Amino acid sequence: MSKGYIKRIELTAEKFIINPIDQSVLPGSHLYKTGDAAVMNKDGSIDFHGRLDYQIKLRGYRIELGEIENSLSTLSGIITAAVAVKKDNFDNGQLIAYVEVIDRDSFDENFLKNSLANLLPAYMMPFAIVPIDALPR
């Protein structure tokens, strides 16, 4: 529980919700919106149902897949992009980017990776960038 950010009413309203559980314990208290979708059971236990956004946790980092997709979409020759986590046989995750390209003949994965390295930190770099004819709509 928290009272929110000090002297930052707008940020508190964006990042916190009023505590729906027990206002009698700490009136005016707030709960941080983590982005997790969960349900509190009658016995007080909580069932986790996933995320409300496209944020994932990979190798200890929280990664917003949409940020990678947007960065890829700004690169020359890319129409649109989708990023997913692919797990190997040992349950290790790798970021894989699927890109719809203007000209498949001029596709250069290394050039795209080098360009993307100027936009994103290393932990957000896709392991592979795969050209596809069209993303499913």
In short:
By secondary structure, the protein is an alpha+beta fold. It has helices at residues 9-15, 65-73, 109-117, and strands spanning 16-18, 30-32, 36-40, 46-51, 55-58, 61-64, 78-87, 93-101, 128-132.
Can you describe this structure?
The protein is of the alpha+beta class and 137 residues long. The protein has 2 domains: 43 residues, no CATH class; 78 residues, ANL, C-terminal domain (GMP Synthetase, Chain A, domain 3, 2-Layer Sandwich). Helix content is 18%, strand content 36%. The strands form 4 sheets. Strands 7-8-9 form a 3-stranded mixed β-sheet, covered by helices on one side. A two-stranded antiparallel ribbon has the order 1-2. The N and C termini lie far apart (41 Å). The mean pLDDT is 85.
Shape: elongated
Helix content: 10-25%
Distance between the termini: 41 Å
Count of separate structural domains: 2
Order of helices and strands: HEEEEEEHEEHE
As for the CATH topology of the largest domain, it is GMP Synthetase, Chain A, domain 3
Q: Spans of 5+ residues with little confidence (pLDDT < 50)?
A: none
Largest sheet: 3 strands, mixed
What structural category characterises the helix and strand content? alpha+beta
Tell me the CATH superfamily of the largest domain.
ANL, C-terminal domain
Q: How many H/I helices?
A: 3
CATH class of the largest domain equals Alpha Beta
Rg estimate, integer Å = 20 Å
Q: Please identify, by name, the CATH architecture of the largest domain.
A: 2-Layer Sandwich
Question: Strand order, biggest sheet?
Answer: 7-8-9
Strand-residue proportion: 35-45%
Whole-number average pLDDT?
85
User: Using DSSP, what is the number of strands?
Assistant: 9
